[in-house]
Amino acid sequence: MNRSKGSIEAELSKAITQWEKDFLGRGSLSVKSDLLRDMIIVNLRGVLTPAEYVVSESKEGMYSIKRMRTELVESGVDDLKNIVNSITGQEVISFHTDISTKSGERVMVFKLGSNYEKIFL
């Protein structure tokens, strides 16, 4: 079965949303995954709770929220890499993430071992 780039991106978004619910206890409001060359870029909107927005109003609170949220995601990074591998068949070489305490968005970047996008071109 030949899957399209869009269907793989949608499958990744759905699986990462489910991972969030299972591992973190709640999912983001929306998830969009994009395959670009040897990267999968995932944009998660609505990640922070109302309380986290209040805490992040101070610089110390902002750093605390960013650090805690990063530690939570990093502690489940093996699961995330396995999700990407099971959907794409590609090895994840590295993982990068950051969260904005202003917009409540998280960005995840999975760096793959090869240019996976070229199989769709």
From TrEMBL:
Residues 5-112 form the Na+-translocating membrane potential-generating system MpsC domain. This is Na+-translocating membrane potential-generating system MpsC domain-containing protein. It comes from the Bacteria. It comes from Bacillus weihaiensis.
